[in-house]
Amino acid sequence: MGFFDIFKVSKFKNEIEQLKQQNALLQQKLDGLCYSDYESAQRTIQQLNQLANDKRNEISNIENQRSSLEKKLFDETQIANRDFEQFKENINNKISSLNEEFAKSEKKLKTSTNKIAKSKEIYKSIEYSINN
User: What's the half-sphere exposure (Cβ side, CA atoms, 13 Å) at 39?
Assistant: First the structure.
């Protein structure tokens, strides 16, 4: 150790004192944040990571439930649409059948009306012949 190293010792002491002050200040900040030591901070980080993983799992489960419900809704909608189309087809068939029956009944009614009209004409002719 040389003569000039003696002057460096006081410089080193000053630097050590400054570093101690900085360390104390940083330690106070950590204590203020309730992280008095590294292990406490690590435990908190692990807890937060576990909480984040739990929330991710919960989100995943909810998304799976949502997908399942959307699929079920789609399937039920398809079934309802199919049933509605069958019902509509049945109703249209019944309407067509009733329209055909109505047309036949109208035709029979017209035929019967014509027969009655002819019978009236014959009756009037006979009555006229008898009276004259």
Answer: 0
